[in-house]
C-alpha cells in the first residue's frame, strides 16, 4: 500500500456512511490481506477513521501474526477470538520454550533499518541477498539534525526510510548471524541506523560508529549516571 497526497485525502465526513471502513474493529480482516483482495478485484474508494488508520497493522502485527497463528485471519477465528489480537509480546515470550526461542533466532527475521533515502535501492538489494523476506515495510520520514544518538551524519535534516523485514527468510542455507552481520556492516557504511528492539551483532566499537554517543556520554557523566545505570550498549548488545 502507498499513501500520498495524490492518492489519499483527509476528510471530516464521508459522502456516504456505507463508505466508512472501520478496519480497527476486531472482526475485520488483517489489513494487508484486505489490500490483497482490493488488488485482485480492482480499485475502490472508502473512508477510514484516523484512529483505525493509525492502527491498521495492529491486529495482524503487520504480517507477523500469520507466522504465529496461521488460521488467525479466518472469519470464524476473527469473530470468536479476534478481540484477543494481537497477543502481548510478553505473553508470547513467557510461553516460549528453548526450542521455539532458538528457532526464532536462527530461522526468523525481525529487523528495521533506517537508511538515507538515496540508498534505498542498495539496501533492498542487500535485504534480497541476505534475507529474501517479503513483503517489506517501507516508511519514509524526515530525520532532523538534532543532538542525540540518531541523526544524519551530514549537518542538515535529511530524508530517511525505514526498511522493515518481518518473516521467515527464503535464502537457502540461511545463517542468521552471518546474514545480519552483512546487513549491519552495509547499514553502518551508508550512515544508516539499526533499530535496537531487534537482535543485533554489533560490537561496542561498531555501536559507537553507528550511533552518536557524544551527548549521551556527556549527560551520563554530568549527572553521575556512569556507575549508577547500565550503558545503553549493555542493554541491547549481544556482545555485552
UniProtKB/TrEMBL annotation:
It comes from the Eukaryota. InterPro entries: Diminuto-like. GO terms for molecular function: Delta24(24-1) sterol reductase activity. Keywords: Oxidoreductase. The keyword Oxidoreductase applies. One of its GO terms (cellular component) is membrane. The keyword Oxidoreductase applies. GO terms for biological process: steroid metabolic process. This is Delta(24)-sterol reductase-like.
Amino acid at each position: 500500500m502507498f499513501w500520498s497526497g495524490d492518492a489519499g485525502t483527509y476528510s471530516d465526513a464521508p459522502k456516504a456512511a456505507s463508505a466508512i471502513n472501520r478496519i480497527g474493529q476486531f472482526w475485520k480482516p488483517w489489513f494487508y490481506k484486505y489490500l490483497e483482495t482490493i488488488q485482485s478485484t480492482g480499485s475502490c474508494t472508502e473512508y477510514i477513521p484516523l484512529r483505525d488508520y493509525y492502527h491498521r497493522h495492529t491486529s495482524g502485527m503487520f504480517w507477523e501474526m500469520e507466522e504465529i497463528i496461521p488460521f488467525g485471519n479466518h472469519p470464524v477465528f476473527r469473530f470468536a477470538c479476534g478481540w484477543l489480537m494481537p497477543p502481548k509480546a510478553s505473553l508470547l515470550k513467557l510461553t516460549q520454550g528453548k526450542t521455539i526461542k532458538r528457532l526464532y533466532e536462527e530461522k526468523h527475521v525481525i529487523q528495521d533499518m533506517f537508511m538515507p533515502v538515496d540508498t534505498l535501492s542498495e539496501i533492498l538489494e542487500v535485504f534480497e541477498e541476505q534475507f529474501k523476506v517479503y513483503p517489506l515495510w517501507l516508511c519514509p520520514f524526515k530525520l532532523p539534525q538534532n543532538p542525540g544518538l540518531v541523526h544524519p551524519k551530514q549537518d542538515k535534516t535529511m530524508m530517511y526510510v525505514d526498511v522493515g523485514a518481518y518473516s521467515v527468510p527464503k535464502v537457502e542455507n540461511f545463517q542468521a548471524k552471518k546474514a545480519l552481520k552483512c546487513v549491519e556492516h552495509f547499514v553502518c557504511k551508508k550512515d544508516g541506523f539499526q533499530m535496537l528492539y531487534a537482535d543485533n551483532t554489533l560490537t561496542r566499537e561498531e555501536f559507537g560508529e553507528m550511533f552518536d554517543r557524544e551527548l549521551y556520554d556527556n549527560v551520563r557523566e554530568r549527572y553521575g549516571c556512569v556507575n549508577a545505570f547500565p550503558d545503553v550498549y549493555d542493554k541491547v548488545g549481544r556482545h555485552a
